[in-house]
Design a protein that fits this description.
The chain is of the alpha/beta class. The chain folds into two domains: about 120 residues, Chitobiase/beta-hexosaminidase domain 2-like (Chitobiase, domain 2, 2-Layer Sandwich); about 350 residues, TIM Barrel, CATH 3.20.20.80. It contains 15 helices and 18 strands. The longest helix has 17 residues. The two termini are about 25 Å apart. The relative contact order is 0.11. Bound molecules: ligand TNX. Its EC number is 3.2.1.52.
Length: about 500
């Protein structure tokens, strides 16, 4: 048997809040290892046993009195985040404890990264060693998200599930799905079949290359799948602009009732719902009711961006009527920051994407108690090119290398929107130049890991040299999982 390889206790992304290595306490995972768990932790325990099996080749049964123990633990301070956990690695065993299943799941992701990347050959089981010590961890922000744009290019349920699996490993806990735009409508809505029959069909998407839609049942399944990875789905119906696909399907949604042509180009800002027609609100109420009914998470994103062909007055009329509909159907509205131009319901969350600070009401909203999601395009837009040689991506917000995506802080972006006003951070990935899950992965990895660390790790503990060094270890991990990534020359990949 070859000598067991070992990782360092702090070799984790995102970096945990507290890491105390103890070189005398390494734990050797040997042939007899088993996992024990409180009944409420059975799912996470099953996953951990599976991981250990994969890495070592040992049988790793679930059994009482196992050396690897998972506990839902009252001794952990209940006032802490449900995502908090404590991981103790000692010579005689490993104990993972948390106040809630989310915390156990977060701790499992840490443990996964402390195991070697290798997968044991079936014929040759191999011991591995976990580095000794204690990790105590909890997130900086409750919302750590990323976004997929299904409208410009559709990705099916298998791709989305695979993406959820990958992002959850970095403690990303929200997946925002941009479901509708000028080029396509990607979620079946009961009572409005033409939305997806016409605008989800062949020839939709950028250059007609991204057809497809989620049936209501497929979407509900994805929501449920996300729950098992503690990833909350945030559906977006983009309103009142970005609606050409809806108007192609239902011409009565235009101001003059005249049909409009399908569009497969990347222009923005030319379409709008009509603020002074009741048909508009009947449609929007219905769509929000249906989407809310299919979504278990607390959020519903109503878009609100780039409504360049809606007058300011119509925008205000429309948003003032539509924003409360999220609450009417039990959801909390998120919208791109343009919506902060109107009086917001108390729980509404502006998502800020601007490059340069401007007076668009976001600071005012924060001062009156609104939480904000930070997604500045020049730091968090995963569809920006890495550098001039990037085969995919746009560059209107600048080039976005890995260091640039790491070396900023959401609490410094906008005067008046500090730490206490932030719900969290999100990295959107628009699909104009993407054609496959491999393209998505290439743009997201490794930059999404930078955003994940910004969202999780205490600000004072972050540094680019440390991140850069830890990131290098993830090359072989992505490869072992078959996840595509950009071998950025900024990193000395292992
Ligand atoms: C801006 S910023 C958009 C999207 C585009 C994206 C491309 C924002 C809320 N909207 O419509 O897809 O740029 O980077």
């Amino acid at each position: 048997m070859s000598a067991p390889t070992m990782r360092q206790l702090g070799d984790v992304i995102p970096l945990p809040a507290s890491v105390r290595p103890d070189a005398t306490a390494d734990f050797r995972v040997t042939a007899g290892v088993s996992v024990s768990a409180a009944p409420a932790a059975a799912a996470v325990a099953g996953e951990l046993a599976g991981l250990l099996r994969q890495v070592t080749g040992f049988p790793v049964p679930l059994a009482d009195g196992g050396a690897v123990r998972l506990r839902l633990d009252e001794t952990v301070d209940e006032a802490k985040s449900p995502e908090s956990y404590r991981l103790d690695i000692a010579a005689d065993g490993v104990t993972l404890s948390a106040p809630a299943a989310q915390g156990l799941f977060a701790g499992l992701q840490t443990l996964r990264q402390l195991l070697p990347a290798q997968v044991a050959a079936e014929a040759a089981p191999a011991e591995v060693v976990l580095p000794g010590g204690r990790i105590e961890d909890e997130p900086r922000f409750a919302y750590r998200g990323t976004m997929l744009d299904l409208a410009r290019h559709f990705y099916g349920p298998a791709d989305i599930r695979s993406y959820i699996d990958t992002i959850a490993q970095f403690k990303i806990n929200h997946l925002h799905l941009h479901l509708t735009d000028d080029q396509g409508w990607r979620l079946e809505i009961e009572g409005w079949p033409r939305l997806t029959e016409v605008s989800g069909g062949e020839g939709t998407g950028i250059d007609g290359q991204g057809p497809g839609f989620l049936t209501a049942a497929e979407y509900a399944d994805l929501v449920a799948y996300g729950e098992t990875r503690f990833v909350t789905i945030v559906p977006e119906i983009d309103l009142p602009g970005h609606v050409n696909a809806a108007q192609v399907a239902y011409p009565e949604l235009t101001c003059d009732g005249e049909p409009v042509q399908p569009r497969t180009d990347a222009e923005v800002g030319y379409s709008s719902l009509c603020a002074n027609r009741e048909e508009t609100y009947a449609f929007v109420d219905d769509v929000i009711r249906v989407v809310a009914g299919l979504t278990s998470g607390p959020f519903l994103h109503i878009g609100g961006d780039e409504a360049l062909s809606t007058t300011a007055e119509d925008y205000r009329t429309f948003m003032t009527r539509v924003l409360p509909l999220a609450g009417k159907y039990g959801k909390r509205a998120i919208g791109w920051h343009e919506m902060a131009a109107v009086e917001l319901p108390p729980t509404a969350v502006p998502q800020y994407w601007r490059i340069e600070p401007a007076d668009d009401g976001v600071a005012r909203a924060a001062q009156s108690g609104h939480q904000v999601i930070m997604s500045p395009a020049d730091r968090s837009y995963l569809d920006m090119k890495y550098d001039e040689s990037s085969p995919l991506g746009l560059d209107w917000a600048g080039l976005l290398g890995v260091e640039r995506s790491y070396d900023w802080d959401p609490a410094d972006r906008l005067p008046g929107v500090g730490e206490e006003s932030l719900l969290g951070v999100e990295a959107p990935l628009w699909s104009e130049t993407l054609r496959s899950l491999a393209d998505v992965e290439y743009m997201a990895f490794p930059r999404l890991l930078a955003i994940a660390e910004i969202g999780w790790t205490p600000r004072a503990d972050r540094s680019w040299p440390s991140f850069r060094q830890r990131l290098a270890e993830f090359g072989p991990r992505f490869e072992a999982q078959g996840v595509n990534f950009h071998r950025s020359p900024e990193i000395d990949w292992k």
